[in-house]
Design brief:
This protein is mainly alpha-helical. 61% of the residues lie in helices and 9% in strands. The protein is elongated.
């Protein structure tokens, strides 16, 4: 009887952890610099150049960073 309670608690704890992980992975990052959202920053030439100057030896090809 005692082991059955432990098993039920472990299953419940695992379900809570999986649920929390799914919620955490599903949340989207929000970018907001100078009033521009993610898509605007992605297209902004000055922002892309600034990122390239910070990440020396790498290049941006579209939205991919190559080092």
């Amino acid at each position: 009887m005692k082991s059955a309670v432990v098993v039920v608690l472990l299953v419940a704890l695992t379900a809570v952890n999986v649920g929390a992980a799914l919620v955490n992975f599903a949340s989207k990052a929000r970018a907001d610099v100078a009033g521009m959202d993610y898509m605007e920053l992605k297209r902004d030439r000055d922002f892309r150049r600034a990122v390239q100057s910070i990440v020396e030896g790498c290049s941006l090809n579209g939205s991919m960073l190559s080092c």
